[in-house]
């Protein structure tokens, strides 16, 4: 089996040489800003075609913000182009920098020796510079680079502040989703057992009565009924088009790897796997919204034909009840499509951290509880399930 051939470059980043060595670093070197600087250099020097051919395997595998050592991967065919673009990088976030190649090899394991030697040399240099003035915590922090500078898979798992952020995702995100799901389970129970106390149940009864009124005088009300269904179909078409357009945008973001990875303001999991899960969750909600709206269009289209059939000409299997159920099914699928959009709001905020996502779930449940409740209803209150209440309304 033939695999992809890559080249791994161990680079050392030198910051502004004119600054005082005692001052703090003007920027924090991260995978995000290093990747962005190299991509910009490739685009400027080799154009969009060169950038596109290099992005297939190009990736900044690791960056140590303390020792300024980074490991960069590029394909064997494009590594010289990437190397040339790296040497022409002059700044990262408006801070002058210079890249120095320490090692070039064909496997990531071979980069280990060069990276560790550089870390040890920097640690010895730091001890010579500060002497006895080195702070214990600073010395331990740099001394630990023998383990922390290893790319992913070299070091053992250690407890870090980043793990605390991941725990927030494991706690707040399930709590927010459970809150949303629990509310909708309660809403379904209310719709089935007490339909007139919810807006969805009340509207279902009203549509049932409207269908009976339209079909009793079909020649006179036929145009009104068809126009009403046309408006509903247009609304469902708009929501379906919006859902599939947003799904395309999310798919592009997933493929290109764009996102908030490495941003400071995201307090939570910022790993690539976590970002992919977030984008996939949003994509799943949008696709469900698209499917529900398409089914809504299907039932509304059927109902627009059935409603013009006079009741006296109906066959035994084509009654007012059947047409009413068809209209209500179209409305139910419309409501499910809207609920899928509602679920996508907290999932989108999850990209910016689990705290905004959880707060959005709380606000949504609070608002939906007012929207879904029917406080003032002119329809009679019925005991029993929704269908019995609708039939009672038809007999009244």
UniProtKB/TrEMBL annotation:
<protein>
    <submittedName>
        <fullName>Uncharacterized protein</fullName>
    </submittedName>
</protein>
């Amino acid at each position: 089996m033939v695999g992809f051939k890559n080249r791994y470059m161990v680079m050392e980043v030198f910051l502004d040489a004119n600054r005082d060595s005692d001052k703090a670093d003007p920027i924090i070197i991260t995978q995000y800003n290093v990747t962005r600087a190299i991509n910009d250099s490739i685009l400027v020097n080799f154009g969009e075609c060169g950038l596109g051919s290099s992005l297939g395997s190009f990736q900044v595998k690791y960056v140590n913000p303390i020792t300024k050592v980074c490991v960069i991967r590029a394909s064997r065919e494009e590594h010289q182009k990437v190397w040339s673009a790296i040497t022409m990088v002059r700044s990262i976030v408006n801070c002058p920098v210079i890249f120095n190649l320490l090692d070039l090899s064909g496997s990531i394991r071979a980069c280990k020796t060069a990276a560790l030697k550089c870390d040890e040399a920097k640690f010895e240099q730091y001890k010579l510079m500060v002497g006895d003035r080195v702070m214990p915590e600073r010395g331990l922090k740099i001394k630990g680079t023998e383990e922390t500078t290893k790319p992913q898979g070299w070091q053992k798992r250690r407890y870090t502040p980043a793990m605390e952020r991941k725990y927030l995702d494991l706690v707040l995100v399930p709590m927010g989703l459970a809150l949303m799901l629990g509310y909708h389970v309660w809403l379904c129970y209310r719709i089935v057992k007490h339909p007139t106390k919810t807006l969805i149940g009340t509207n279902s009864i009203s549509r049932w009565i409207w269908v009976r009124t339209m079909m009793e005088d079909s020649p006179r009300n036929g145009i009104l009924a068809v126009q009403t269904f046309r408006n509903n179909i247009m609304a469902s078409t708009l929501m379906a088009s919006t859902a599939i357009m947003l799904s395309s945008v999310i798919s592009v973001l997933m493929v290109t790897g764009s996102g908030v990875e490495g941003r400071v303001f995201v307090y939570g999991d910022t790993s690539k796997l976590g970002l992919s899960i977030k984008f996939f969750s949003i994509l799943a909600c949008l696709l469900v919204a698209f499917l529900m709206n398409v089914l809504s269009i299907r039932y509304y289209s059927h109902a627009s034909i059935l409603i013009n059939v006079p009741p006296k000409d109906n066959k035994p299997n084509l009654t007012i009840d059947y047409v009413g159920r068809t209209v209500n099914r179209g409305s139910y699928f419309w409501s499910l499509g809207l609920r899928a959009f509602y679920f996508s709001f907290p999932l989108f905020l999850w990209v910016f951290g689990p705290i905004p996502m959880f707060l959005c779930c709380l606000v949504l449940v609070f608002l939906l509880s007012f929207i879904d409740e029917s406080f003032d209803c002119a329809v009679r209150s019925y005991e029993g399930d929704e269908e019995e209440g609708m039939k009672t309304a038809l007999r009244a």
